[in-house]
Amino acid sequence: MAKQSFPMMKTGGGVLPKLFGWAVLIVVVVMVVQQPTESAEFVKTTFGALKTFFGAVAG
User: Fold this and answer.
1) Distance CA 3, CA 53 (A)
2) DSSP label at residue 8
3) What is the signed CA dihedral for 24, 29, 35, 38, rounded to 10 degrees?
4) Among 45, 43, 44, 49, which Cα is nearest to 57's?
5) Is 9 left (phi over 0), alpha (psi -120 to 50) or beta?
6) d(C-alpha 52, C-alpha 30), whole Å
7) In this structure, are residues 13 and 20 in contact, taking their beta carbons and an 8 Å threshold?
8) Dist CA 27 CA 13 (whole Å)
9) Distance CA 23, CA 21 (A)
10) What is the pLDDT of residue 14?
């Protein structure tokens, strides 16, 4: 069985990194709930920019 029950969540470490991670998670959830259209547009724009960037780097 895996040692970590939640993927990408560190079970060890100090209190400050955990608080920062939870704060970021809460901000993202609040943003998506309050402004779903703007959040979707942000994600679409971000992935589009990443696609363009990696396409330019690859060839």
Assistant:
1) 36
2) T
3) 60
4) 49
5) beta
6) 29
7) no
8) 22
9) 5
10) 84
The tokens for 17 are: 């990194």
- CA 51 – CA 59 distance, rounded (Å): 12
34-43: per-residue pLDDT in tens? 999 999 999 9
And the tokens for 34?
């309050």
CB burial of residue 53 (10 Å; 0-12, 13-18, 19+): exposed
Q: Mean pLDDT per 10-residue run, the chain (59 residues)? A: 60 81 92 93 94 93
Which value, to the nearest 10 degrees, does the dihedral of the CA atoms of residues 20, 24, 27, 30 take?
-120
Quick check: 10 and 22 in contact, CB under 8 A?
Answer: no
Provide the token pair at 20.
Answer: 């920062």
Please give the single-letter amino acid code of residue 11.
T
